[in-house]
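Handout, page 2. Input:
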Amino acid sequence: MKLSVIIPVYNVQHTLERCLDSIISQPYPDWEVILVDDGSKDNSPTICDHYAEAYSNIIVIHKENKGLSDARNVGVQHATGQYITFVDSDDYIDQSTFEEVMHILNEHPEYDMIEYPIYIHYGDKNREKILSFEQKEYKDPNSYWLEAKAYLHAYACNKIFKKRVFNHVSFPVGRFFEDVHTLPCILKEAKVVATTDKGMYYYVNNPHGITMNADGKALNDLLEAHLNVLPELSDASYYAHVLNIQMDVYEKTGASPRLPVLPYYSTWKLQLLHLIGLKRLCRFNKTLHLLMNKRS
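Output:
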C-alpha cells in the first residue's frame, strides 16, 4: 500500500459523502482510507460503515470522543502505507490530486514531505483564496519554514508525508492549533521537503471553526507553538507574525506578554516595540482596537 488517507470524523453527516467521493474518484489506485469515527452522535458512523462495506480499501475505527489530534494519532497508528495524508471530513480534494502529487514522490523518493495547493475558506466569497506554490525543494527543512513562510500555512491537510516522519511525532491532544505545534516537529524528522503547483485541496469555509472563533486559550496555544520554534527559527517576518499573535493573546486575556524581544526593526511596529517595550505595545494595540470598535 502506497498512500494512507486518514480522515477524522465527528458529526459530519452532511459533508462526509462529498469528502469520500472525492477520494474514491481519484484515478490513482494505490490508497487506503482510514476513517476514525471520534464518537459521532449523528449519522456519520452509519455512513462510514456503508463505505467500508462497499470498498475493501476503506476501514473504519469507532472510538470514544477525544478530539481531532487523538483521532489523527489513531489513524497514523493503523496506517499501512509508505506515505500518509490527512483530509478533514468537511473538505475534499480535486480529482487528479493524488495521481499528480504521488507521481512527483515516485520520481523523488528523497522527499519526506510535499505540500500542494490549497483553496482556503472555499465557499466564502469575501475570504476565499488559492494558496499555490512553486515547484521547489528544500534540503534544509528549516528554510522551508521561513522562506516559504510555512508558519502561515502549517495545515496538515494539504501535504503528503512519509510515514516514517511520524515515528517520533504525534499531534498534541488537548491543544488548539495542533497543526502549528506538529509541523515543526515533522520538519525535525525530515531531510528534504518540497512544494508543488500540482493538485488542489478544498478547505471549505467553516464559520464555526476555531480559526474564526479563537478565544484566549486557543490563541495562547497558538502562541506557545510559535514560542517553541522561535529560539531555533527566526527572521524579521516570522518574528513580526508572532508579535501579532502575542498582542492578540494580551488583548483576549490580559496575561503578561511572554514573547522575547529580539533585535528586528524592519517595520514600524517592531521599531515601536523597542521604543516603548512589549507590554506597552500590547496595551497600545488593545486601546487602539477598543477605539476602532467604538467608532464602528
